[in-house]
Amino acid sequence: MKKKGTSASRVIPTPTTGLTELALQLAAKGPSKMEGTPRRVRVLFDGIYLADSTSAFHVWEHEYYPYFYFPTSGLKVHYVKREPIGDDDSVSLVTYQGPTKTDSTTLMFTKGELAGLTRFDFGHMDAWFEEDQPIYQHPKDPYKRIDILPSTRKITVKVHDVVIAESTLNMFLFETMLRTRYYMPKTAINWQYTTPSPTITECPYKGTAEYYNLMVDGDEIKDAIWWYRHPTRESALIEGMACFYNEKVDVYLDDVKEEP
Fold first, then answer.
1. Please, which residues have CB within 8 angstroms of residue 2's CB and are 6 or more apart in sequence?
2. What does the pLDDT look like over 181-238, one tens digit per residue?
3. What angle do CA 99, 89, 100 make, to 5 degrees?
4. What is the reported pTM?
5. Parallel, antiparallel or unpaired: strands 146-151 and 170-175
6. Strands laid side by side in the 162-167 sheet
7. What 3-state class would DSSP assign to 14?
8. Distance CA 30, CA 25 (A)
């Protein structure tokens, strides 16, 4: 299947837009683009692999990152219920039953550009694997990459002109189309201004992040710092290092203030 041009009007699935709206738009207009991948992709739900395929597709439902879709004919676990969405039966909501739980967030397409493909909801499955590597949050975009380079350029972090951290032993993380992030040793931080945060996030390129809040002159800045205890292999160079949100604090690179 050939690529198509991207469109800024595509619906990104969120709790507000809903799975039904996404399904109807994809059935009517198709995805932004789609490409086959030779990678073995597996989807684990309640101890059962609902999908195990070397014929999956990268499907861009929007321009930001892809999802995995699977040929319906290659799925060996049968669904227990199928409910059409809309009037023309081009897409259905499918229910799978595991030994201990049920999920009803799978989309099965029978018409249009996605005909013959099935979409499992990433967040509702228990685990995803590319070959034998776990995938976090969403599939990686094959057209994006990260580079992590050591740098002795001075990074200073301030809030209300108070120095929160300063370091010349940094790792600069460059990610396609995103701003540079500056990772520094935790020993470079003035910890009296920090408090632990319960926030946990996941990134397909870096792994699972933990956070700290900042409290400076009575102002709390939530989740201003993050770090990776056990990053993915490709991001191993930032293991245990801390990074500040440029958008939440004042960051100076070689004493020059960066734009938020």
1. none
2. 999 999 999 999 999 999 999 999 999 999 999 999 999 999 999 999 999 999 999 9
3. 5
4. 0.76
5. antiparallel
6. 162-167, 155-159, 250-253, 256-257
7. coil
8. 7
